[in-house]
Design brief:
Helix content: 25-40%
Shape: elongated
Strand content: 25-35%
Number of helices: 10
Distance between the termini: 53 Å
């Protein structure tokens, strides 16, 4: 059996839920979320912290579950909106990591006032600003330096570090940052280093090699006289929302990591912040075929949803090659295959949920599903374009299903 044929979607009464709640909709499997957390804990053990990147899916109910059942150790936030949602979901400020290159004085002040778990510093200017705020407010703050190494890790589908950019402090500026931290140790409690190499890495060996380079930075900072207690290696654990399906080997990373840490004579906590790997498999997007048509020999399947709900389906950050979006025809999975372009309902040629995709021949009224879309789905899409309503989101807890809806509509003005 393939990964696709074993997907949890095939065990649930999706069609009856659609009759009750309509389409399009998202379905989230809470048992899958629990299983992902358990797999991570079992593979890495207690010495690796598991945080979740809020931006992957800011669904309040998912985050409340993550907090109530201690499925993760904390949350990475990058705005006051994410901060507020995390706090409302039950997370204490001490369990939050605050990142992002555009933190304003308002952001920094609130993080200080509520005693954020750690503030990730992205530039020397931000370091100066948070220092002055801490002095003015007489409130010490825990900080990490987010660093931007000079060499990219080519195994990451989207490379973030290792190139000019807004994220992190370039290494030539590291000595200045270290000197600043030492001068202001009374208000700046240095906790460690944060390096986010990129996203969608499928090679455990390459991922481990990236950590090895980050450990060299840790040693460099330790040699300067600052103690590094935590190395935050970010996220980037590869997970496909396309076929052929693939994902990175956690066991492969853990094996390399144990060897690297065994060689060190100082304790060091590793922190990972996966969003896609943790939340992606928990979700699926479901949309109904409104109609099919043929244009100059090409068959088009037009949906009642689109990229305004699932921009990730464009695979814009993935080398196209031989991959195609993972799409299932839930209504007629055994129908003969047909090559179709799957289009959304938006008035733009960009609204393609799949190009030249071989699907069990879709017909008007069929339900199509996009598995592994629990991360970077609804909130990472152009929701307001054309003013369509937001889809229902269903949380399946293993027995019952609970409907919720997040509202993002152009009609809502104040």
């Amino acid at each position: 059996m393939t990964q696709e044929s074993q997907h949890w979607l095939h065990t649930l009464p999706i069609e009856s839920w659609v009759e009750q709640f309509g389409t399009p909709l998202y379905v989230y499997s809470l048992p899958t979320l629990r299983a992902r957390s358990q797999e991570f804990r079992e593979v890495f053990g207690p010495d690796v912290s598991l945080y979740v990147a809020m931006k992957a899916n800011p669904n309040f109910h998912l985050h409340r579950l993550l907090q109530e059942e201690s499925l993760v150790d904390g949350v990475d936030v990058a705005s006051l909106g994410e901060w507020s949602l995390a706090r409302e979901a039950g997370w204490s400020a001490s369990q939050l990591s605050y990142t992002g290159p555009g933190k304003t004085k308002e952001h920094l002040s609130q993080a200080l006032q509520e005693e954020v778990g750690v503030l990730c510093i992205e530039s020397l200017d931000e370091l100066e600003e948070i220092t002055q705020l801490a002095l003015d407010m007489n409130k010490p703050v825990k900080v990490m330096l987010r660093l931007n190494p000079p060499e990219p890790v080519h195994a990451f589908g989207m490379q973030i570090s290792g190139r000019p950019g807004p994220f992190g402090i370039d290494l030539p500026s590291l000595p200045e940052a270290i000197s600043h931290l030492k001068r202001h140790a009374r208000v700046l409690e240095f906790k460690g280093v944060h390096v986010h190499a990129g996203s969608q890495c499928f090679s455990a060996k390459a991922y481990a090699r990236s950590i090895q380079e980050q450990l060299k930075l840790v040693d460099q900072i330790e040699e300067s006289g600052l103690h590094v207690s935590t190395l935050n290696v970010g996220g980037g654990l590869g997970l496909a929302s396309w076929v052929p399906y693939k994902t990175i080997s956690l066991k492969g990373i853990a094996s390399h990591l144990r060897g690297m840490l065994a060689e060190r004579n100082k304790p060091l906590r590793i922190r990972l912040e996966p969003g896609r790997w943790l939340l992606g498999p928990t979700g699926a997007y479901v949309s109904r075929v409104v109609r099919t048509k043929t244009s100059y020999g090409q068959t088009f399947c037009i949906m009642d949803g689109g990229i305004h709900h699932l921009y990730e389906a464009t695979l814009s950050d993935v080398p196209q090659g031989k991959i195609r979006p993972w799409i299932e025809n839930l209504s007629r999975p055994q129908a003969p295959l047909q090559s179709v372009d799957v289009c959304g309902s938006l008035c733009t040629t960009r609204d393609r949920l799949g190009r030249n995709v071989a699907l069990p021949q879709p017909q008007k009224g069929d339900l199509l599903a996009w598995p592994n879309t629990g991360a970077y789905g609804l909130s990472a899409s152009p929701l307001l374009f054309l003013g369509h309503d937001t889809p229902m989101e269903l949380l399946f807890d293993g027995e019952a299903v609970s409907p919720i809806r997040r509202r993002f509509r152009i009609q809502e003005w104040s």
